[in-house]
Amino acid sequence: MQKLKKFFIRTYGCQMNELDSELMVGLLEKRGLTKTDTEKDADLIIYNTCSVRDLAERKVMGKLGILSRKKKKALIGIAGCMVSLKKERLLEKFGHVDFLIGTNNVHEINDILDQLLKTKEKRAHISEKSPLDIDYLSAKRASSLKAYVSIMRGCNNYCTYCVVPFARGREISRQSFQIIDETKYLVDKGYKEIMLLGQNVNSYGKGSNTSFADLLGKLDNINGLERIRFLTSNPHDMTKDIMYAMRDLPSVCEFLHFPFQSGSDRILKKMNRKYTKDEYLQKAASLKEIVPNIKLGTDIIVGFPTESENDYQDTVEVFTKVGFSLAFIFSYSPRKNTVAYRFEDDIPLDTKQERLHKLLDLYDKMLTKEKTKMIGSTYEVLVEENNKDGRLKGKTRGWDKVIFDGDQSTVGSIQKVKMINYKPQTLIGKIEN
To answer: Among 328, 353, 372, where does a domain finish?
Structure first.
């Protein structure tokens, strides 16, 4: 049986994938393996993949192609969304790949390796149903201060452009006591901030006695937990109870990722987003009214099939009217397995690019205006780590990145930092005594 000593994992995509990689790292280290940062030193190489954007897929395909041309010495595995969606293509095209792990099987990594080393049989391990028995306490966290905590897996929304329900299965919520116990464990280990993860955290606990707002209240009662964040929120399921929880619970930060995707009612219906432009604007207004100093993030897709210039201008209107501190703006690209893949991709590439760049330019102007307003004011910053230039870095409660001078001893603490300047998407500050 082949002896494995070192492993390498590269993660593509979202925070869900990052947590899945942390879980595999912890399990592999329990097996006795050592993590290495270079592929050439590894006996085991795993790519944890994403299929949401075409670019992420192409990067993985390129890496696999390079490995196929080199003399192979390591076991090679592919995990994540690409496995669930492209099993046949991956097995056919990359014969040098030894195993595939679906998103619902990452916690079985050691059993899969045992089977592979014993039988030498190349297999795809894919379960459609989201598991409830994952031991997240085994995860090796990338940070010693901030941790991802999964509260649910899968998605039931079936937005027509999105592969997630096909890659991660149907929505299922963890029991609240499991989440609370895991969070208490992390706080006891010195963690200051948790990020609750779900494809749509707003729908947590449907069919149970614990709503997402209830869960936030229970977590806020944990002594020593400084900050709670969460990703991501579908506007369709945003309730006043969640807004009031954000306002009233001291540890819940005033940042909300609140994707609107398009400002056009016609395109929203075609996307199966289940809300209208006016409904989104009303909820955004309520959030700003109820939660003082809230900052909003969003996702936007331009060039969705049949998007007219008027549809696009509706998107510009929402983007301008709401104002966002964080925005991920993409031009539409067809994704196999989705409903939208059957739509004609009828918006010319140059039109998509023009609309994309106009929104990006508008976003830059928004950020400049927002950051300029922050200069001279003081904010609470969780000091996370050293920056590359020797200074410290951290984030405000509103998700603003800040770089500042300070003593190493302040890492892990919350400091009051006065903002004195900014550069693109990053504030420059100094700790106030």
So the answer is: 372
84, 167 Cβ separation under 8 angstroms: yes
State the pLDDT at residue 424.
81
Type of residue at 138: S
Q: Tell me, yes or no, whether 37 and 183 share the same domain.
A: no
Domain residue limits at 86: 6-125
Q: CA 288 to CA 73: how far, in whole Å?
A: 56
pTM for this one? 0.93
Q: Give yes or no: residues 386 and 427 share one domain.
A: yes
255 domain residue, yes or no: yes
- pLDDT in the model for residue 122: 86
Q: How far apart are CA 307 and CA 345, in angstroms?
A: 10
Q: Same structural domain for residues 106 and 156?
A: no
Residues 120 and 136: their CA atoms lie apart, in Å, by: 29
Side-by-side strand order, sheet with 227-231: 146-150, 193-197, 227-231
Does residue 100 register a pLDDT over 80?
Answer: yes
Q: Which CA distances in Å does 323 have to 188, 199, 291, 359, 371?
A: 38, 23, 15, 12, 13
Domain count, the chain: 3
- Of 80, 101, 125, which residue sits at a domain end? 125
d(CA 409, CA 386): 11
With cut-offs at 50, 70 and 90, classify the pLDDT of residue 84: confident
Site of tokens 């949401």 = 52
Instruction: Specify the CATH number for the domain of residue 102.
Output: 3.40.50.12160
Residues 6+ positions from 81 with CB-CB distance below 8 Å: 13, 17, 49, 50, 51, 52, 103, 163, 164, 167, 168
Q: Residue 279 above 90 pLDDT?
A: yes
Task: List, for residues 1-31, the tens digit of each pLDDT value.
Answer: 468 999 999 999 889 999 999 999 999 999 9
**Across residues 412-429, what is the average pLDDT?**
94
Same domain, 55 and 167: no
Q: How far apart are CA 140 and CA 117, in angstroms?
A: 24
Q: Is there a single domain that holds both residue 54 and residue 143?
A: no
How many angstroms separate the CA atoms of 53 and 56, rounded?
6
Per-residue pLDDT band at 146 (split at 50, 70, 90): very high
Angle at 253 between CA 381 and CA 264, to 5 degrees: 120
> Is the residue at 131 inside a domain?
no
Q: Provide the pLDDT for residue 58.
A: 81
Percent of the chain with pLDDT strictly greater than 70:
98
* Residue 234 shares a structural domain with residue 103: no
For 141, other C-beta atoms within 10 Å of its C-beta total 19
Q: Tokens for 232?
A: 């991501």
202-221: average pLDDT: 94
